[in-house]
Amino acid sequence: MKKHLLNVTSNIEIARNIFEMKLTGSGVGNMTTPGQFLHVSVGNHSSKLLRRPLSICDVDLDREEVTLLYRAQGEGTKQLSQKSAGEVVDVLGPLGNGFDLADMDKNKNALLIGGGIGVPPLYYLGKHLKKKGIEVTFILGYQSIEDSFYIEKFKDIGETIVTTVDGSLGIKGFVTDAMMNVVENEPVIYSVGPAIMLKAVEERAVGLRGYLSLEERMGCGIGACFACVCPTETRESGYVKICSDGPVFKMGEVVL
Amino acid sequence: MSRLHVALPGLNMKNPILPASGCFGFGKEYAKWYDLSVLGGITIKAATLEGRFGNPTPRVAETESGMLNAIGLQNPGVKKIIENEIPALEPYNIPILANIAGSTEEEYIEVTRQISSSARISAVELNISCPNVKEGGIQFGTHYKSAADLTRKVKAVSEKPVYVKLSPNVSNIVEMAQAVEEAGADGLSMINTLVGMKLDWRTGHPILANKTGGLSGPAIKPVAIRMIYEVSQKVSLPIIGMGGVSTAEDVLEMMSAGASAVAVGTANFVNPYVCPEIIEQLPKLLDEIGVENISEMTGRSTKQWKTPLSSR
């Protein structure tokens, strides 16, 4: 595992408080598994010490460029949003276990469900699945049209259904409201978002195989501090560490 | 002997740097980042008699130049630590300091009895200062008599030297240190975290599921320095100093205050390589001030040098 100093090539606001940061450097070559994350330091002289776990949204291996999308909500991510092209960002990673695509060979379709800032890793995942010849459908949930992002890019990969809580774009409601019609052909589910959303997705996907990627406040990001644990009934220890055992788990593996 | 060598009861360390308990797991996670043999020692995560799941999440909250944690002593229990975790440290020829915790005196005693008999354990650190569990922990660390009683009982069964980890959440830490010294402690670890709290201004509710947590990081370093400075003048026990240390300069400052070795905690989360980087930096800083052996740094703040440092 490695620490890298990556150079910012761009860092722009693409939706309300949602930033797209592109970084280049030699460390990018290892970022080949969708669903992994980078543990990002917001600044060398910041009083915000802890790193931010940001999921990998896209990787261009030829250009050695990684794309991260994040919401500038707290003081630390706001500082990160001030970084401009040419500045250096200190990252650990790639960390965690990403999505397992091995058992997708038998299946010809996948349903990728993301909510809010859980959407970004589905982009890199969708590209990988499409490359394997798998038919990909996305359900992307946002608060409103102002908070939505990357929809056209997702449409380039596969059918994309959008939901917004206020109904300003796509279907009014939550991602689960759009699930019923698309689970009939028994896709493999891949979902990223807050625990409450993942729980609802899991309830509607009974009988289907799938993977969930969890979000949690992290300390070290490498499995040492036990900050980001989640209960499980499938392991003797009774818990998993989201940063190092996850963040991706099989559906049903953790207690949400 | 290396100029960074320090010797404390049970802990013969090639340098004074060891990770602090709870900030390094049982070592194996950081072993993926660097060779742990470079460390002066390792403090492993607290052991209790039975496995504990700890507190609900969120368990961490960031604060200015620091963080709050309320992990709640999550660990697999002393038996599994002895069977699974300690053997994994076998390849590294460095002292291991085992942190022990409990809800009752009996639990502390039994955990100490078991873990101190493990050949690989060099010393035990009596955790009477964890602010994040409802029973035990800090209850023992905030009353002089119960701290002294527990120290005495643990000392009676321990096969290895006993360091008592002191809480800063007391009105007089010097009296606490004196009480455990009199009870037979072999050394002190100080300081544990300061109890704190953070609210989400939008909801008005605490960020941590446990509501309160222990404050660590550079924000608490001045408190640690002051307490080590005061305690080291009143007790004759060696002190493992800790609290917000993140640079080699911090290490020498803390040793100057009275510490004989220094533990690094939260800084490991910021930079997993912080301990080896500090160790590499220390000789350069010693050269800068003309000090040959790092052990000379201990307690400099209260010593009068007969000759100026520069001519030594």
Topology:
The complex is a heterodimer of chains A (256) and B (312).
Chain A: E1 3-15, E2 18-24, E3 37-40, E4 52-60, E5 65-71, H1 75-81, E6 88-95, E7 109-115, H2 121-131, E8 135-142, H3 151-157, E9 159-164, E10 171-172, E11 188-192, H4 195-204, E12 210-213, E13 229-231, E14 239-241, E15 248-250
Parallel strand pairs in A: 7-8, 7-11, 8-9, 9-10, 11-12
Antiparallel strand pairs in A: 1-2, 1-6, 2-5, 3-4, 3-6, 4-5, 12-15, 13-14
Chain B: E1 6-8, E2 11-13, E3 17-19, H1 28-31, E4 42-47, E5 60-63, E6 66-69, H2 78-85, E7 96-100, H3 105-116, E8 123-127, H4 138-141, H5 144-157, E9 162-165, H6 173-182, E10 187-190, E11 194-197, E12 212-216, H7 221-234, E13 239-242, H8 248-257, E14 261-264, H9 267-270, H10 274-288
Parallel strand pairs in B: 3-14, 4-7, 7-8, 8-9, 9-10, 10-13, 13-14
Antiparallel strand pairs in B: 1-2, 5-6, 6-12, 11-12
| C-alpha-based Rg of chain B, rounded | 18 Å
CATH architecture identity of the largest domain in chain A = 3-Layer(aba) Sandwich
CATH class of the largest domain in chain A, anyone? Answer: Alpha Beta
SSE order of chain B in H/E notation?
A: EEEHEEEHEHEHHEHEEEHEHEHH
Helix content of chain A: 10-25%
Tally of distinct domains of chain A: 3
